[in-house]
Amino acid sequence: MLLPQTRNIGLPMMNLMRFKGLPILQQLHIEEQLLRTSSENWCIINDGTNDPTIVMGVSGKPAELLEIESVLHDQVPVIRRFTGGGTVIVDHETIFVTFICNKEAVPDLQPYPRSIMSWSGSLYSKVFQGIGDFRLRENDYVFGNHKFGGNAQSITKNKWIHHTSFLWDFNVRNMAYLKLPKRAPAYRSARGHLDFICRLNDYMPRSTFIDKTVEAAGTQFSLRSLELEAIETCLETEFRPSTRFLTSEELEVAAAVAGQ
């Protein structure tokens, strides 16, 4: 089903898909397939996912990043995604925003991580204009010294993806599943999770954040809203995603490594 378009003459076209509670594994599969097989630009906004799920970067090592015994005991699902970046635990209080773009879609943007991060920081500066002390610090979105948005990227020959998990709110207990990472931004200053992060809901209404994000994207792209059914033909292209759940056996091996 096609929804109304926001046409801005002279701007590149971008397809916009908005979801409510799409399972994070399904979202990541859609993103990976669009990155690998689509020739169009995409923005995907998913307002929360269902059950708490840990999502690790492509090179993340469970023994170094997770309290594996607790993860196994509580049967918390663990996903290894196709992009880089760190480890997060997500649930219905996480808002996901993804941009998948052709390399020529954004003028003067070089297809390198720092350039993409700089562009995204500028875009979200419009979203958070006049709200808190927003800035891009290293690879994080922060208010002052506290992180509320974590980013990951992947760059292919012709496209790039930049996706963010925004902490609208979080369950304190869930943070205990994550170890303090060995590699952390300098501004973290060895702070624990609860001293390091903050909640986006302390700064603006949820619907306002989503609407402002769409509005900011509309300053750079001509947006065309789609529902999932409209891209089923594209997604029928034979494709085997690399994003997947880690098995309990894999986690048990990692737990043994961590215990050595």
Model description:
The structure is a single chain. This protein has a 9-stranded mixed beta sheet, with helices on both faces. It is globular, with a radius of gyration of 18 Å. By secondary structure, the protein is of the alpha+beta class.
Nutshell version of this structure?
The protein contains 9 helices and 13 strands. Helices cover 29% and strands 28% of the residues.
Structural class: alpha+beta
Q: What value does the average pLDDT take?
A: 92
Number of helices: 9
Q: Biggest β-sheet, characterized?
A: 9 strands, mixed
**Record field, number of beta strands:** 13
List the helices and strands and how they pair.
Blueprint: E1 2-6, E2 13-20, H1 24-37, E3 41-47, E4 53-56, H2 62-65, H3 68-74, E5 78-80, E6 88-90, E7 94-102, H4 113-127, E8 134-137, E9 140-143, E10 146-155, E11 159-167, H5 172-175, H6 193-196, H7 206-217, E12 222-226, H8 232-235, E13 244-245, H9 248-258
Parallel strand pairs: 2-3, 2-12, 4-5
Antiparallel strand pairs: 1-12, 3-7, 4-6, 5-13, 7-11, 8-9, 9-10, 10-11
